[in-house]
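Checklist before submission:
- one chain only
- standard amino acids only
- sequence pasted in full

Submission:
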Amino acid sequence: MRTQYACLALLALLAAILSLPRVAHGQRMSLTAEEMKHALHTARPEEDGFIDDVVDRVNNARRPASQRLPAAMVESTFQWARSKNTRHRFQYFRRALIIRAARIGVRL
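Returned file contents:
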């Protein structure tokens, strides 16, 4: 029963995040990959690689538009995941960002 409430709460938060307005591409993130890794408690090289790829998708202007992510989207998802009082903050971040990126046509 507790797990059902946790799932419902997660879905409600994801719905709220997904309803945020979209921001134009071309902005740079104020966070570094290292800051994000530390705050999200990444534990495996695959998790570190995901963060590195996300930061590159925001900051690298040479990537095609279909592969870029808005800085505001990444930072708001990061802040939301960071607010979770759990050791699994990275999993919240990854899942929410994959969902939000798919809404704008970016596959992670």
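Reviewer check: Confidence is low (pLDDT under 50) at residues 21-26.
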